[in-house]
Design a protein that fits this description.
Elements: H1 3-33, H2 36-46, H3 57-68, E1 74-76, E2 79-81
Amino acid sequence: MEAGKMRKYRQMSFIAWRGLRSGVLFLADESRRGTLGRNLLSILKARGLSIAAGMSHAELLEERAGKQGDEKFLEFKDQALT
């Protein structure tokens, strides 16, 4: 295989891998929150990406910060959020 085709194959493989990984992480997060069934049903009904149980950015940040414990999670200007 020539170098250009090989590079394109690697890039497409990487994109496919990242897409699959994102899908699995989405399913795991939604399952853990207990909203998986409702969100999958809304996606099927809309025949597109339509999430019924949405979360605000603040709620997502709070959830992720809670997983970090006392470690620094986010820095903004002179503030450090844990």
